Amino acid sequence: MNEPVTSETYAAQLRRLAELTARVHEQREEARAWYEQQCSAAERAVAESADEVNRAEREVVAARESQEQVDAEVAVLWQELNARLGGGGRRAGAPPAPAPDATGDPMSLLDAARDLLHRTRQPGELPSSVNPLLALYGVAGAVLAYALGAGARALAGRSDGELAVGLPVLALVVTLLGPVLGLIPTRLLADRRHAVLSPRPVLIVIAAGLTTTLLLLTLP
Known about the structure:
Blueprint: H1 7-84, H2 106-121, E1 124-125, H3 131-157, H4 162-176, H5 178-181, H6 183-192, E2 195-196, H7 199-217
Parallel strand pairs: 1-2
Helix pairs in contact: 1-2, 3-4, 3-7
């Protein structure tokens, strides 16, 4: 026959069961808390990853827009450079690719290139090295005008009537215009060198031409 369970043994079994139940409940709560922590960490990681993806997409869009802007600026500057070097409006082909080791802000580099082109577009004065040539222009213009005037006076000596009266006046006018005739080739020289015709070359040409004219007029 089964022996009867004493009250002390039964009570001990109940306490044991209660302890096990409490321990199971505590472990279950710990597991639930750990699970919730892991879920929260995963959600934060997903949210951070989504933010990084969005930020990367915005950076890609900004970089693409910046590249398009830089490419457009490069194309404009390249065409200006081609025209400046005498391209005559012909297509200069594609601009050179950027150097692999290029550093720095491309917009700053483009601003510097644009400023350089702007300064090179501004015409300067003719250099002092062309002063002898300018003087030669003045002398040649005066000699040519004097020769034309002499020819007109000679023709007047062989003519009569109105020609005999008008040709000497015309000869004098042409001779007096001699000092400024040298300004014509001087203007062409300045245009060919993309320079402005400043007062210095004008004075050199006129002074040389005037001196030559006075010398020719004083000849016997």
